[in-house]
Amino acid sequence: MSQYCKEVRGHPRSAQYRVYFKNVAGHYISPFHDIPLKAKSKEAVFNMVVEVPRWTNAKMEIATKEPLNPIKQDIKKGKLRYVANIFPHKGYIWNYGALPQTWEDPRHKDSTTNCCGDNDPIDVCEIGSKVRACGDIIQVKILGVLALIDENETDWKLIAISVDDPEASKFHNIDDVRKQKPNYLEATLDWFRLYKVPDGKPENKFAFNGEFKDKDFALEVIESTHKCWKALLHKKADGGDINCVNVQVHDSPFCCSKEEARCIVQSASTATNEDLNSKEDEDTHTWHFIKK
């Protein structure tokens, strides 16, 4: 039985759509701040918040600037965001999400990439066989990491597999992905390089010439972003307009009561009459062929 449940408000594919989270006691929590980074396990197993299910196009994300950080669909220039289908891929090619209690500090320059962070929790590409749902909390083991440089910001992409995947026992490091899923890493590199091209942007670039770093390197990156998150939650780092309200980090000055959290959700706008792009279906996007 999951320790967490989700509460959906608003219509899917609308600006008002939100996925809020509750703990096992039924109290509202922040998926960014209140879900532990590590799962209760003897191994190095991490909690992952699934934002985007595999094969879908809607760009869902943890709302880092809203109280209690529900998942919402990103909006740019007044329109809901969708990633294009880039042949032969349909939408996101993994279950895509983030590790809670991590933060890529935009004022901290990474010593390995020489670029600052992108101001978000660290991203995860889960490569297991199951298609997850938006808002699922799953336990993953980390296999490696890719360093995307997005508009001069470090945007780490962890490669992971759910511990309950039927083939999880075959995966221990990034080399196992090459053995067990040939060309998957190459497809991942292509996807991240090209996915913004249909929007008129240039191809993305990578640190380390696009080399996937191994598990040990990835774990160091996670630890570094976890330390940045701790500094954020204790006012030792400037988070700008990041919303740090939480319920369970009791030594944080941003910690609120369960009742206050309930009031936050109740007072949040749940209007559904303004449904931007509601007729746009994820399954009807145009395929984009990228000339190389």
TrEMBL record:
Cofactor: Mg(2+)
Sorted UniProt keywords: Acetylation, Hydrolase, Magnesium, Metal-binding
InterPro entries with a match to the protein in the record: Pyrophosphatase, Pyrophosphatase_sf
Keyword field contains Magnesium: yes
One Pfam assignment: Pyrophosphatase
GO molecular function, one term: inorganic diphosphate phosphatase activity
Any one GO BP annotation for this protein: phosphate-containing compound metabolic process
Catalytic class of the enzyme: hydrolase
UniProt keyword Hydrolase present: yes
GO cellular component, one term: cytoplasm
EC number: 3.6.1.1
Domain of life (superkingdom): Eukaryota
Family statement: Belongs to the PPase family.
Assembly with partners or alone: Homodimer.
Name by which UniProt lists this protein: inorganic diphosphatase
UniProt gene name: PPA2
